[in-house]
Design a protein that fits this description.
It is a single chain. The protein has 297 residues and is an all-alpha fold. It has 13 helices and no strands. The longest helix is centred in the middle third of the chain and has 37 residues, at 85-121.
Length: 297
Amino acid sequence: MMSNSSTSIKEQNKNMAFTLFRRNIRKFEQNKLAVFGLIIIVIVTGACIIGKLTGIDYATPVLPEMKKPPSAEHWFGTDTMGRDLFARVLVGGCYSIFIGVFCSVMSAIVGAGLGALAGYFGGKIDAVLVRISELFQIFPQTVLIMMLVAIIKQRGMQNLIFIFIVTGWMTTFRMVRNEYISLKQETYVKVCEAFGISKSNIMFKQILPNVKSPIIVSITTNVAAFILSEAGISFIGLGIADSTPTWGNILNIAKAASVVTNQWWIWLFPGLAISLFSLAINFLGDGLRDVMDAKQQ
């Protein structure tokens, strides 16, 4: 009887989870902007990956083809060194999207861990971590990134990723901390504490699954922020080395006034890629927030 009862409860839980999943899918489908954003993300990411895997030539300069406008041979035209701009935008997208996604995930892990510590334990631990986050927020993030780049004095993807993670965890930290402060007063947490369950188990196995919604939303929205930050830093010459064709480095070539006025395609297409992808990410983040955040439902 006990076995049949436990099996029945498990089946009911599975049915409830499946019903909730279907309801969330329908709710997401009703958000046209979120669906549009997801489609754009899939198309752009897929095109960039295919371009990279097929070994498309993005680095070979062809001097007779310098600054050629868009044509059937070069869909996006060529840059100031005669390199195919369409190929560079595709390959550059792989680097820019990777930087955005990886930095967003890693900074969310750091922010979630510190937010869990601050929100659950409170007291001095909370005060110290909050003060550290406030210290990072004294400067605008772009200025802080520029300062750290100047201190490290080496341009490279690893260094830029490290700087982005160090400067990008505060948003997730604040969201997770606030959720933990609220959830640690719930009955199930008090029951776990009364049964002597370890604090690490309560923090990361009992409470953390209930905080996944703000974490996922912050990861999604931070992807766009990191892509824009990389583009801005690379545009002023402080980002990744020029040999790596990120979207920001492609735009860096177009910062000369003569290129802006005479070779519009050199800045237009990478700029459109950055803008369209970032906008799609924000649309998707808004849709996920509406679906997963109980306060928005």
